[in-house]
Write the structure tokens for this entry.
Amino acid sequence: MTTPEDVRARLEETRARRGYPLPHQGAMAAALPELQDAYAAMYRALTLGPRHLSPFEKEFVWLAILIGCEGHVGTHHVRLFRETGGTERRRRSRSGSPHWRPGREASPCSAATGRATSPGSPRRAPTSPARSGCLPAVTGRARPAVIGVHAARAERWGLAVEIEAAYARGVAEPKMAEAMSLAMWPAGVNRFLEACEVWLGVMRSDRVHPSPSFRAWANMPDRDGFHLPPRAGAAAPTP
């Protein structure tokens, strides 16, 4: 059992490092210190170190995901957005964008464009909402943000469309991966897993041309996870 002194020391270390301890830090400090250590390492790797998105692009993606998930934890990203070059005008335009407005996936726009082929199909690619005219076009730095929002909200069809569009417009695959990975923090690791499953389907469809490294991932066998075998003696499903 962690001692009271250890708990206080851990929370003070968190305060010194981040400026404030959040409630779950207390629970981990008191009962799950190993998890707290691993949590801090993952947070640094996921959010603090430079990777593929520029600092401004990363904070842009963060804001879009938080808006799309209606998150209230992580509001310090508004400050970071401003510090990396974001303006109040940009913030307001991002927060009002229909591309990451909650509930957009079930909108008439999605219904109108969703009659195209399913993600991963080798047939004609689905029509994007922007191309259909019912949403503004996604341009420039917004593409990774839209990918991140679709990943965070488990919007598989929309994510497949935006991944294909990103390939067509030359968005770097590592930037797409980083944008998807940020969904892990507010939405959970399963959303990142599901987004990568969609990505695999798009790459297997031959409608995009992955780089050699991503093609190596797509071509690996047994990459779909564990499949539960049928129970012994279970009746075969009826047709």
About this structure: Confidence is low (pLDDT under 50) at residues 94-100, 102-136.
